Amino acid sequence: MIRTVHLSKVYRGDVKALVDVNIEIAKGEFVFLVGPSGSGKSTLRKIMTKEEEPTEGQVYVAGRPLDQLPSWRVPYLRRSLGVVFQDFLLLENKTVYENVAFALEVIGYSEPRVRPLVLQALDLVGLAGKHDRLPHELSGGEQQRVSIARAFVNRPQILVADEPTGNLDPATSLEIVRLLDRINRTGTTVVMATHDHAIVDAMRRRVIELENGYIVRDQDRGVYGPRD
Amino acid sequence: MALKVGYFVKEASTNLRRNKLMTMAAVLTAAVSLLLLGGVLTLGDFVSSITRGLENRVEVSVFLKDSITGPQRDDVKSTLTNLNVVRGVTFVSKQQAFDEFKDLYRDQPALWQNVDPDVLPASFRVRLDDPKHVDAIRSALGSNPSVDEIVDQRATVQRLVRFTSLLRTFSVVMIVVLLGAAVLLIANTTQLAIYARRKEIEIMKLVGATNWFVRLPFMLEGVAAGTAGALIALVLLGLGKTVARSQFPAWIPTIALHGVAFGQVFWLVILGVTVGALGSAVAVRRFLEV
Hints:
By secondary structure, chain A is α/β, with parallel strands linked by helices. Chain A contains seven helices and ten strands.
């Protein structure tokens, strides 16, 4: 589903974000991408969504080599790849329902198709009774659920979560990861970048560890790491 | 892409209402530049119709020497009437010339009271099929000893034409500058609108909205502003023409001042739309690079 071959990214000023990264993530996998801030996790996510171009190497998403993807196809790549962020990125003046529906409207879904999909997605994330709330009326965990519903509402093949629990307390964080796990069980490949030890250790899934742009560990059913 | 017209129109009108002042500035700048353009187009039509009218009225005067004899005069007249570019020939005697002179300066009797009617030369007034053919008369009579001078008024008309073409060049420069300003103002308005919605745009890009989907509401906004400018300009142009028409004496052909020509409506609207689309496209470009 996602494959990188000798992938390197050097930012201006000779900052090496990724160095010779080779990863292969199969369809339906749940992968934790761990490592301290600045280890290259976000860069990897941006390369997958083609927000950044690799300096060297090749990336395949859903079988397609990204360097050959013309820029007008990038929106279609992003439709097959839902993204969730640490800061939720919700529209404050839109209700929960509208926030999720927005993601479908702007990719051209017609009104009658939008409603059932949004209701389903909100059901899945456990917000069935809160359609008309505004984001500021929700707790952090609930807001993140809205953002997950938005990322998942058009049923992408891959869900990428970039520090989705960074702003949440441990209990809520665990609920969010359980939700991602539920989504993973629908067949969606989930990649979650995190530096939350407790969650990684609790889930016992594949762990890929980055440090200074290098992959230092790739372990099935791993824990966060031996350090501290 | 399934175009959702309602969505685009709603977005564009929201943006326009959010930035009322900037939008007004943009609309007015577009209106002024387009009004100027309409004015120049009208001026062009008007001047060429007047010039044509004047040129057709222009006569060539063939002044005769005082020493001319009757047969010599008949000779000149037959030379003129035999030229196929000549439509008509009228003889103006010294007395008639003096009478016309008196009539022309009837308010200033001092000019003619002490003048001997005999000092003004007799002449033939020649009407031509085309004012350009004055050279044919010159070559036929230029060396005739009984002809004193051949005078046509083309020079005067040409000076008028040169002046108006200069005026037109100047106006075109002004119009280009003003249209440029309109583009920048619309770009600025659009940029404010985009800035207010940058989070929305970020999300749209993130979930895979196409660039056109993001761009269209903003471009529609620019186009609406440009079109509004064009319509204002057209209304003002129509009013201006009506006022101007009443200011001219009856003998001047004011056909160019009747109504607003289709060509003018066409150009003003096309340019208004172009200015609006261009301005907003410039503004939105920067934000789509993700």
